[in-house]
């Protein structure tokens, strides 16, 4: 294809991506270098019979004017990145010096909002991804053995949790685990503890969110692996059987290696999706116990009346850096594949 | 061909069947439970004392005279004007899908037919864009949109969703077009067609299966979105998902949780219908990227 024709074909999609994805990243970066104007304060002295008192009040008009003139705020350099709500080098350093063991250090770090969000996001990604991979493979192997009549309906049922709107799906579960809901009430009876609430404790909230994560993404790995199982060569399976391999041995040494490319693909997709975990935290109102990077940005932007663009921008840039680090192995591999194809 | 040895019941088979059964229950039960409960009153839906109340609707019968009530739906759709959000949702979703498919087919076709190095770089950039949490981009939109006074209206949201959709659409259609033999459009060009004519008269008629599959996923992305729509739309232009989120704040206080439950069921219904009719396309779309690597 000629360069000229290529250009005209690609123009609409490329301009959409440049305008609304690439430029916003630049805009986010610029925003992160600025910080909101402080309110203009006026000190007025009022003198009465008992001497003079100084009162400080906010000059609303002047504040509004300066915000109007410079909507970005004032230049702050990289200070937003290093302040207490983000990388907090000073606080982390202090915690490192003062804490005697790992436990107290971690506690101190978990009090910092950015690290709290980062640690939850990473834990969520690291727990949900392998669980979904293993369970998805197990269910795919199981469904593959089902009689044909049940296969279709069981795939239909499995698609529901995956395709349902994340906010809605997590709400449905949230109502069920509520203290008065069916799962919540059953757990209270099982553990014989009428005050048991999944929402009140940090570990239980984390577990609840991860259970939701597994429930929501399991169908994706299951269906991909199920499709992969259809392509396993029958000859190899029979050969393994003739050689006396048990079913378990066949699964581990024939089927799983055949599915390896799929495992890489599914892992990549799961990592990308789990890293941006956001809606369940809104639905479960879990922010007191668990926040994610996405939720942290959302919260800064929601700050009513006075969104913290600088803070949100800094977190966004740090999140994007995280995504790129996560993707580097894939990008390098694709680059090698491409070069091999070309040469 | 199945032999007796393959059908022999081993502990492994039993475990895997049990696992499948457990999963199917876990997948379906929350939906059935919520659908059933949405026709009850709150005292039944959250029936702590006796869970069978939620099934037989004891309080519902006491309060309304029958075991089922449409009060939640009335409250959500009429009282809280959920129909308005549903209308906004359909406008946003319809235009997002149409525009992103148009852009995506053109771009995906070009990428599939071009062997230049920059085509590869565009695909790589799209992969990184695909991985970015949408909310990071939203924080970049807000300030400029406020300045230009285009915040809060539907067209802005539509074009933003189209852009966010592009990386995925491009990848999907790029791999689909690669599977259509090159000879097809090249022989048309030998016969004197321009590249665009070849695309229009040779490729367009055969591309619909791939476009429909991609369209389903564009639909899901636009329909399920919360991060973009909740930040970029003003109160009166709200779509369904942010509307449900704002229900939570208001109805929990007034004791109208059932409104939110009814709204949640209403928002899930279109997805249910979608899976019912397009199950095969969805499954093939999910695995399309995977099988081709």
Keyphrases for this structure?
heterodimer; A: 343 residues; mainly alpha; MetI-like fold; two-stranded antiparallel ribbon; 15 helices; globular; B: 293 residues; 2 domains
If you had to describe this structure to a student in words, what would you say it looks like?
The complex is a heterodimer of chains A (343) and B (293). Chain A has 343 residues and is mainly alpha-helical. Chain A has 15 helices and four strands. Chain A has a two-stranded antiparallel ribbon. A two-stranded antiparallel ribbon of chain A has the order 2-3. In chain A, β2 and β3 (51-58) form a beta hairpin. In chain A, α4 (89-98) packs antiparallel against α5 (102-110) and α6 packs across α14 (293-302). The model of chain A has no long low-confidence stretch (mean pLDDT 87). Chain B is mainly α and 293 residues long. Chain B has two domains: 4-74, no CATH class; 82-291, Orthogonal Bundle (MetI-like fold), CATH 1.10.3720. In chain B, 80% of the residues lie in helices and 0% in strands. Chain B has 16 helices and no strands. In chain B, α7 (82-113) packs parallel to α10, α8 packs across α10 (154-178) and α11 packs across α12 (195-203). Chain B is globular, with a radius of gyration of 24 Å. At the A-B interface, α1, α6, α7, α8 and α9 of A face α2, α7, α8, α9 and α10 of B.
How is this fold's topology laid out?
The complex is a heterodimer of chains A (343) and B (293).
Chain A (H helix, E strand, L loop, with lengths): L2 H30 L1 E2 L5 E8 L2 E8 L1 H10 L4 E2 L3 H4 L6 H10 L3 H9 L2 H33 L2 H16 L2 H12 L4 H9 L11 H28 L4 H9 L4 H29 L3 H5 L9 H10 L6 H34 L1
Antiparallel strand pairs in A: 1-4, 2-3
Helix pairs in contact in A: 1-15, 4-5, 6-10, 6-12, 6-14, 7-10, 10-12, 11-12, 12-15, 14-15
Chain B lengths: L3 H4 L3 H27 L4 H4 L6 H5 L1 H7 L6 H9 L2 H32 L3 H15 L2 H15 L5 H25 L3 H9 L4 H9 L4 H17 L2 H6 L7 H15 L2 H35 L2
Helix pairs in contact in B: 6-16, 7-10, 7-13, 8-10, 10-13, 11-12, 13-16, 15-16
